[in-house]
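Consortium newsletter contribution from the modelling node. Members have asked for a concrete example of what our holo predictions look like. Here is one, prepared for the magnesium ion complex that several groups have been discussing at recent meetings.
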Amino acid sequence: MVQGEKVTVVDGVVKTPDHVTIPFIEGDGTGPDIWAASSRVLEAAVDKAYEGKRSIVWKEVLAGEKAFETTGEWLPEETLETIREYKIAIKGPLTTPIGGGFRSLNVALRQKLDLFTCLRPVRYFDGVPSPVKRPEDTDMVIFRENTEDIYAGIEWEKGTEEVEKIIKFLKDEMGVTNIRFPETSGIGIKPVSEEGTHRLVKAAIEYAIKENRKSVTLVHKGNIMKFTEGAFKNWGYELAEREYGDKVFTWAQYDKIAEKEGREAANKAQQEAEAAGKIIVKDVIADIFLQQILTRPREFDVVATMNLNGDYISDALAAQVGGIGIAPGANINYETGHAIFEATHGTAPKYAGLDKVNPSSVILSGVLMLEHLGWNEAADLIIESMNKTISSKVVTYDFARLMDDAKEVKTSEFADELIKNMN
Ligand SMILES: NC(=O)C1=CN([C@@H]2O[C@H](COP(=O)(O)OP(=O)(O)OC[C@H]3O[C@@H](n4cnc5c(N)ncnc54)[C@H](OP(=O)(O)O)[C@@H]3O)[C@@H](O)[C@H]2O)C=CC1
Ligand SMILES: O=C(O)CCC(=O)C(=O)O
Ligand SMILES: [Mg+2]
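And here is the predicted structure:
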């Protein structure tokens, strides 16, 4: 058996050995069905691209139900240590109980490894059924802040001593008068920081520069949550102008020109910046953004936003290009090089063990992983095969129910088809 080696990261650059060990978490619910299919496709692509000169050696690490059954812990320290050591991992979805029980293991992994960007590219594959008229117009890359916001899980339950204490503090010491029902409220806290915003927006702009993207849109609800979401917008613009002054033109600059010299001058300045290939950094309030991604998706490109907005936006945008069955993602710390690749969807428990769901989200997360490792030839083989397979109308149930004359196949059969179509 081939002995795998660890990925190393030097000055933020990933160095991949020819035979690389990658830790994986199988996942709960439909996780095992999807992982069995996805790992085969990834292995086949690497094999085909490099004819044995390169390979992935999988190393299972435990989290979720499988970890609890084996070790009595939902997220064993050993799992975190292994991912820290091996730098890169890939995972299936993990269940989070609603309204009580333990906090999200998915969020815990992101926070504990400080994987501050949740990167979710949203693009259309030919032939995928979509509810919109021109799904190919949706081509966006979401940069979702992954460690802060109301998603950080700082909250206290109604009726507890802690919530009474915090409500008393807010009323007596902070002059808060607008907690509508103080006796029966739970309380949640929403931290959004300048550092957290800067590193996320920096990652989004760097990506836009590298990938020749036209704009970065900051999505926020800063009219209502002024010092968290509003501050995100202001800090984002500040960072863009301070660190990328010669490469971007921001709407904050536009506003200043418009105020001094009028709108015509501001429009001219933006047009000149566009003609010079500068990236337009703009912002939009989250509610109207959800309308505009449907009515005029071509106006958006790279999107940078906070944790909760990013969660909602991910699923909404996934729907436009065929749904959650084909929505990949990656959790990345661009400074340390640590990354965990995972689908946007959850455990879809009603389909667990049926060999039924679409494995494309995890497979395409694997494609992001191969690209991160610099193994682009293998990544391209999967993309080409995915296009070919879907165009030939051989698809899983989620696409088959929306397509005419499709051949519905199981999770494992879809993987077989992808492997067959690699050439
Ligand atoms: N990163 C992670 O690990 C995540 C974990 N979760 C967790 O997953 C659990 C279930 O969450 P839930 O809100 O139901 O969301 P899910 O994403 O698990 O499922 C919702 C619906 O999406 C569709 N779907 C999901 N996965 C696939 C797939 N691979 N192929 C085709 N269709 C798919 C199904 O639609 P249909 O019914 O129309 O067939 C399914 O019923 C919760 O515990 C949640 O916390 C949720 C999101 C992310
Ligand atoms: O952690 C969870 O259970 C849900 C997370 C989620 O929906 C997401 O990150 O998109
Ligand atoms: Mg989600």
